[in-house]
Design goal:
Layout: H1 7-24, E1 27-30, E2 39-47, E3 50-63, E4 73-77, H2 78-86, E5 93-99, E6 103-108, E7 114-119, E8 129-136, E9 141-145
Parallel strand pairs: 3-5
Antiparallel strand pairs: 1-2, 2-3, 4-8, 5-6, 6-9, 7-8
């Protein structure tokens, strides 16, 4: 199966994860190559005289080339979310962090979603057609919003 992620993609993801972590005063630790998640979200915690990076979340980061309102849902590979859900708990959250061209937002993967078939059709890769989960855009917590505000009458 081909790997489509480039170094430029990884750099964009690091920037987006950094914005998220700075906003909430966490640290972001990149996952190892070929991991099924992108970042560990950690909090420095003093434990018996030693500082540890306690994992608070596991995040998948996506960078989209459309505006936040272009589609009613954010679609993501169901297998990725399933993996994250199997590695989260009440103390370690699974997060989906998304950058659109005009906003950055996040959602807890425990939020209500629905399953469909779908994926990408622009690469002619049959592995891009799979089961996907949809998260409603209105459920995302926006931490950056560059959309133009409509003037009130």
């Amino acid at each position: 199966m081909p790997i489509y992620e480039t170094e430029a993609d990884k750099t964009k993801e690091e920037i987006i994860a950094g914005i998220f972590c700075k906003r909430f005063k966490y640290n972001c630790i990149p996952a190892p190559a070929m991991a099924r998640w992108d970042f560990c979200i950690t909090e420095p915690t003093l434990f018996k005289g030693t500082w540890l990076n306690v994992v608070k979340g596991i995040a998948e980061v996506k960078v989209r080339s459309c505006k936040v309102g272009a589609y009613p849902t954010m679609m993501i590979d169901a297998d990725k979310i399933s993996y994250l859900r199997n590695h989260t708990s009440d103390k370690v959250k699974g997060l989906l962090i998304v950058a659109w061209v005009d906003a950055i937002g996040w959602i807890d993967i425990a939020e209500k979603s629905f399953l469909s078939t779908g994926g990408r059709f622009d690469r002619q890769d049959p592995n891009d057609h799979k089961m996907v989960l949809h998260y409603p855009i209105e459920k995302f917590n926006l931490i950056v919003d560059k959309r133009e505000k409509k003037a009130e009458k």
